[in-house]
Amino acid sequence: MIELYESQRAMRNMRKAAMQRGVVAVLDVGSSKIACLVLRFDGTDRLAEMDGVGSMAGQSGFRVIGAATTRSRGVRFGEINAMQETERAIRTAIQAAQKMAKIRVDHVIACFAGADPRSYGLDGSIELEGHVVTEQDVARVLSACDVPDFGPHREVLHAQPVNFALDHRSGLADPRGQMGQTLTTDMHMLTVDEAAVQNLAHCVKRCDLELAGIASSSYVSGMAALVEDEQELGAACIDMGGGATGLSIFMKKHMIYADTVRMGGDHVTGDISMGLQVPMATAERIKTFYGGVVATGMDDREMIELEGDTGDWEHDRRTVSRAELIGIMRPRVEEILEEVRARLDAAGFDHLPSQQIVLTGGGSQIPGLDGLASKILGQQVRLGRPMRVHGLPQAATGPGFASAVGMCLFATHPQDEWWDFDLPVERYPVRSLRRAVRWFRDNW
Fold first, then answer.
1. 151 phi-psi bin (left φ>0, alpha ψ -120 to 50, beta other)
2. What Rg value do the Cα atoms of the chain yield, rounded?
3. Helix 265-276 crosses helix 322-347 at what angle (to 10 degrees)?
């Protein structure tokens, strides 16, 4: 990622070219699984009208023609920590999806969870030269936003205008063509740890693929799991993955806040493994078949056999009650939800007009989780599944695939971002300018 603005523009153009050729892959790099979907686009005129504000690809039709998942390796807390392992896992998933689709894929759009995301709300205002708002005016007002100094080793992952105001009229989705004197905008900017993005880009490159886009899992899973009314009125999406729990808040169909809690389903499995003294694979199986967070009187009598292969007969033939298992799982799940509540409170979620919360991701499938979450978070909570996409196999319609399905929507109907507009050269992102000045000073 040599330069934020230019590299994001280049990826957007690459994605456009790949979609015109008709096929692109989406890759969800998670801590517990790596999912790959291959999309095919029909119709060639879908990109004809794509200037400026509005979804870039219009309502283009696409179909999933290949899907594959593999167990994730080398990824912790949603970030790559063993490059070769992750490369092998990505190759496995891509090859299996290509085999199913019977077509070779060169371009992928990837999403990831961790990387310590931070949200910023920016605003900018300009006086209009003419009285009618043009594309250049939108670019000027976006470049007028005062970018905070978000520190070294951070990259901007998303920068989206969420609201425009013309004179005293606010809440405009697209101000172009309208008349007024003063144009104002509110922009949401999400920055992440630079190393995590660079590692992912490098890993995709090592797999002989071109990276045509990159997104935050919290954002794309919200796009897939929240219905249109929830995105419009205000809702939070909690994506409980294996190594990290993503959190995003939507309002007026735009993401206005995102964060990540560095705990997820794998931590619950680890607690079971230590508490019952069984291997991780056995703990995962027990969690999947018998797990829960609400104990009833029946659970004292329901016994679970722990089959081991240590060779110690007594140790291998133990049984535990389901109530004991729930006693191990519940504290960790409560801890994750308490952490999520702290982040929601910090974001001012309780000031939104609607406070619906949607749980999705693989970890959300623990029985009784929605009831516990509504107690801890103090709001209505529902379990969200990703919306249906043409050609998606039945196995990939569960909550664990919210990010992958969200990536399909992100690829085909992306929201406008900063780099979709030609910003005046003198107002390029502040960091780029500083870097250029430093380069001149050092080299001349």
1. left
2. 23
3. 150
372 SS3 class? helix
Separation CA 254–CA 94 (nearest Å): 30
Q: DSSP states of 213-248 as a string?
A: EEEEHHHHHHHHHS-HHHHHH-EEEEEE-SS-EEEE
State yes or no: pLDDT of 433 exceeds 60. no
The model's pTM is 0.82
E runs forming strands in 233-368: 235-240, 245-251, 254-261, 303-307, 317-321, 356-360
How does DSSP classify residue 387? P
CA distances for 307 relative to 225, 292, 301, 366, 399, angstroms: 37, 20, 19, 22, 29
**N residues, the chain:** 444
Domains of the chain by start residue, with CATH: 118-192 (3.30.1490), 228-386 (3.30.420.40)
- Residues 416-432: pLDDT tens digits? 776 666 665 444 444 44
What span, in angstroms and rounded, lies between the C-alpha atoms of 331 and 325? Answer: 11
With the C-alpha atoms ordered 371, 377, 379, 383, is the resulting torsion angle positive or negative?
negative
Residue ranges with strand state E in 303-384: 303-307, 317-321, 356-360, 381-383
Task: Work out the angle between the directed axes of helices 322-347 and 369-377 (0-180°, nearest 10).
Answer: 40
**263 three-class SS:** coil
pLDDT digits (tens, 9 = 90+) for 105-138: 888 888 888 778 888 888 888 888 767 888 788 8
| pLDDT(436) > 50 | no
